[in-house]
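Narrative progress, year one. The postdoctoral researcher (J.K.) led the effort to move from monomer predictions toward full complexes, under supervision of the PI. The following entry was the first complex the group processed end to end, covering 266 residues in total.
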Amino acid sequence: MLIAVTRPVSQSLAHCELTHLSRESIDVALAAAQHAAYERLLSSLGAALVRVPAAHELPDAVFIEDTAVVLDEVAVLARPGAPSRRGESAAVAQALAKYRPVLCMKPPATLDGGDVLRLGRCLYVGRSSRTDQQGIEQLESLVAPFDYRVVPVEFTGCLHLKSAVTAVANGLLLLNPDWISAAAFPTCEAIAIDDREPHGANALEIAGVVIHPSQFPRTRDRLVQCGLRVASVDCSELAKAEGAVTCCSLTFETSSAATQTVRTDA
Ligand code: CIR
């Protein structure tokens, strides 16, 4: 069964972290409505929603992707690069522990889940203002026993690796070539975003459907022309907080290896 772990929009969202964007006023009620529509879409695609309780004192808690990397055998609890976000992790670990053994990254390493793009057994990890060399190395040593390879990649211009590139089908990427080179992914083909829509590369593929922000219709047309099924969602308010569609959920298949154990000694 497909699980999608989400967390509600915090009332304090307007105080979110911002790196590449200037602060604009955010309509929190509209953000919550857009997030609810996103959750309904995930459900309609067959995902069972698991909601982590709201944390209104943590502005960025809705962007749950950054708190963990969930693999088939194990979940790695990340240590987010922004100190204001580190309080998000504990409740996420509790939720994930029902489905996977949870391994925890240790300070001072930092890593945001938004910087980790999984393609099969390979985890491409973006070096960013949030993910440092120690974060990359810790992730590598935590996942190596499960036969995952970690490949560091460079990108520029945006917050997370998955703002620049995501997978829209097996072996097929959607990317912004100004922010990352397709040459970093030699085994894949790539669709470029429309260059008038630089933030259009963040897409979430679920059950053969590509969830994509409705703010980027020209890029959507390119996906459709490639034969992909696309479901557009309006995430304009979350975009003002530098979020999009991958960052609002952790999605994975349930595993028979599910366990209640949280290990902090890894
Ligand atoms: C932050 O700066 O951490 C949040 N305002 C946005 C995080 C978006 N996360 C993501 O794209 N994975």
